[in-house]
Specification:
This protein has 317 residues and is of the alpha+beta class. It has helices at 5-9, 23-54, 63-90, 206-216, 226-237, 277-285, 287-290, 303-314, and strands at residues 12-13, 102-109, 112-117, 126-129, 131-135, 140-146, 151-154, 161-164, 170-174, 180-186, 198-204, 267-268, 273-274. It has three domains: 23-90; 102-216, Immunoglobulin-like (Sandwich); 226-314, Immunoglobulin-like (Sandwich), CATH 2.60.40.420. It has eight helices and 13 strands. The strands form three sheets. Strands 1, 5, 7, 8, 10 and 11 form a six-stranded mixed β-sheet that branches. Helix 5 crosses helix 8 and helix 6 crosses helix 8 (303-314). It is elongated and about 90 Å long.
């Protein structure tokens, strides 16, 4: 597999709990359908009783009998059955254990996601942003943290959601049964751009995941021509290094997303724009017009320099 072939081959899965793609998500989806069906049956029963009560043949009712039967006995019986069944099914969901073979750290910030993978050779963490790559067919443990306010990670097609609380590390297990792209979202209101704090989980076959991780461990690609060399120099001269890391150019971890392989990501700005040279240039030029309140200021540079910088970032795959 080369580059982003999984992304290109499969369309994004709907961000819906009703389209499960993993074992935990299938259980949660079953909960939803049972609740939908039970609610529909109760509604139909109430409407039928209302129709009978309004009919000409309506008989005198005994209030205490209806209160005891329909108001107490019926809901207690139904809720008790649901409680027992849901407890049993919940016990079949994957344990939130950091002992799973694949462990990934996800940090939430206003309004983007930092993602860290253990280096396959034991080196420094491999840092990315706004995408979580996982192997298929195995539970993946996500260690979750927040750098500012309460966020919540939710990928409906793969599992439940988990809050991310400043000063604490929480955990969430995801599993994808097949390769594909699964959209997620921050599910806890976190400020002005909460609605544009999305991410994508990209599931690969295990061998393809290992190959992808090995590529991500490498430094940024060297410029192959004069335009890209100018873009690389612009990244330094325009002080982009004050907030962003590109391994091989700027090694220090900064305030903004790591851009070492940004050109290989599906989106920039946490799911807001598809990644290509035009969107990169537009985002660099004036991010506030696209995502007001984002921590990135507009760039003051001429058009040729902006184009060169966007071209350089686009080829970092």
């Amino acid at each position: 597999m080369k580059g982003t072939s999984v992304q290109a081959a499969l369309p994004p899965v709907l961000q819906s709990v009703l389209h499960p793609a993993g074992p935990d998500a299938a259980i949660i989806s079953q909960f939803a359908w049972v609740l939908f069906g039970g609610g529909a049956l109760v509604f139909a029963l109430v409407m039928a009783l209302a129709a009978l009560g309004l009919g000409r043949r309506a008989r005198t009712v005994r209030p205490m009998a209806w209160i005891a039967g329909a108001g107490v006995a019926f809901p207690v019986a139904v809720l008790s059955v649901l409680l027992a069944w849901s407890t049993w099914r919940s016990g079949q969901m994957a344990a939130q254990s950091s002992q799973h073979a694949t462990r990934i750290a996800v940090g939430a910030n206003m309004w983007w996601w930092e993602v860290r993978y253990p280096h396959p050779d034991g080196g420094a963490d491999i840092v990315s942003a706004n995408e979580i790559h996982i192997p298929t067919g195995t539970p993946v443990y996500l260690g979750l943290s927040s750098g500012d306010v309460i966020h919540s990670l939710w990928v409906p097609a793969l599992g439940g959601k988990m809050d991310m609380v400043p000063g604490r590390v929480t955990g969430l297990t995801l599993q994808a049964d097949q390769a594909g792209v699964y959209r997620g979202q921050c599910a806890e209101y976190c400020g002005e751009q909460h609605a544009r704090m999305a991410l994508h989980v990209i599931a690969h076959a295990p061998a393809d995941y290992a190959a992808w991780l090995a590529r991500q461990a490498g430094p940024a690609a060297a410029p192959a021509n004069a335009l890209l060399a100018r873009g690389r120099q612009a990244f330094i001269d325009q002080r982009c290094v004050a907030c962003h890391t590109i391994r091989g150019v700027s090694e220090v971890t900064r305030l903004g997303p790591d851009l070492t392989h940004v050109g290989g990501r599906l989106h920039i700005a946490a799911g807001t724009l598809r990644t290509h040279r035009g969107t990169l240039a537009g985002w660099i030029a004036d991010p506030q017009s696209i995502k007001p309140g984002a921590r990135m200021p507009p760039a003051g540079m001429d058009g040729d320099t902006l184009n060169a910088l966007a071209a350089y970032l686009e080829q970092l795959k």
